[in-house]
Amino acid sequence: MVNEQSTYSTYTTMTESSLYSTSQLTRKGEKTTIDANEQSTYSTYTTMTESSLYSTSQLTRKGEKTTIDATNERLSKVIEKVLSLKLDDQPLPAITIDKSLFEFGYAENLEIQHRSKIDALFYKITQLQRGIAEKESQYNEIQTNLDFESKRHEKLMAAYRRMEYTRIIEKLVITQVATEYDRKLVEDLHTLRAEFEDLIQKRKTSFVLTNVEFDITHFVASVYKFEEMKAKYDKEIHALEDTISNLKAQISNKRNEVLQLKTVDIETREAEIIANGKIEVIRRELAEEIKKYVALMDLKLYFDSELSIYQKLIASEELRLIIRKVVDKHTGRSFTTKAHSDIETVFDEINMHGDYIQLTNKGAIKNHLGNWIIIAEDKSIAHGKKCQYKFEPDLDLMPGQSVKIYSPNAGGTHNPPNSYVMHGDSWPSGDKISVQLLDNNNKKIAHLTAFYEEDSE
């Protein structure tokens, strides 16, 4: 019994040791197989990782297929190993299967890790491709902007060159025109100076005063001055005439005294000689006074001629400005008109009874009076009547032509463009009438004031 137990224990020990050694050998073989499978799997994953950089969809499918094939092969080997060892040792297949399951889980985890890495790489590749696409779009946009700015710069440079060329040409033309203008101006000045000197030489013998300014105010002031001087010299002439008459009376008295002295005794001859000396002095003084009188008469004649010239100039200026004075012999009143015009068309005639107003073109060119307005007002009383008339749009007043605007029922005929008859309103009447001519911008072009005034007799 003891021997059987020892034999059984020995057999059990041998069996356990053989089982242990068999298990170790099996595990070593499985480990070697697993290592080989891991190496093949790693190499497969390495190959997949490297090849995944070149292709996206094809390499992914190939790697998955390789992984599935390797897993199926390992699983079939494990199943065959388990079936071969099932009869020898029952606990071993369970351990081996558990280990295979562990290795399969490890491989699956490793596959998941590598797949996550591959997905990360794919994501990075996608991001890089997107970045490349964005950079290409930015490059294309920048290139387009650069081309646009280049074309715009070329256009601006062309425009600048044209402007610079135009400015240079304008400057040259302006310089040439200014030079030509200065040259012509100098020539005209020399010509005018020569003509002026010739005119001075021609008129030097007939005119003493050279610089006569044709200004109405200057003429009036000169006339007043000459009238004052004339009055002064007239007073002096009258005084000299009185002196001469006094001297003549003295001479006659002295002659009477001489006659009386001649009848006097010789003793009075000395007094006579003295009287004769006085007479000689008086004669010399008289001769000097006569010379002064002659000089004053010459000066009077000169001033009279100058006054006549100025009166003629004033009369011509009054005629030019349409300032005239008409004396009414029956009523003792004078009719006066004062007018001015910025153009050649003037108020030629105005009826104080309000019948008509006449305009005349006294220039050499036509005047367009279309839509112009005539305003007439009675100034003889406060708030007198006021009337206006507007011309037709196509009215042109030719040189020398007159146009007359009649009041209604004033005996006028409507015959454009020589005469017009107003409708409804009529011109004002009175002792003082003022008329104005306004253009399209209501600017006063011409005016005339006609009035009666009492004579100061």
TrEMBL record:
Gene Ontology cellular component annotations, sorted alphabetically: nuclear lamina
Top-level lineage group: Eukaryota
Coiled coil: 125-152, 230-264
Record GO biological process: heterochromatin formation; nuclear envelope organization; nuclear migration; nuclear pore localization; protein localization to nuclear envelope
Molecular-function GO terms, alphabetical: structural constituent of cytoskeleton
Residue span, LTD domain: 331-457
Name this protein carries in UniProt: LTD domain-containing protein
Species of origin: Acrobeloides nanus
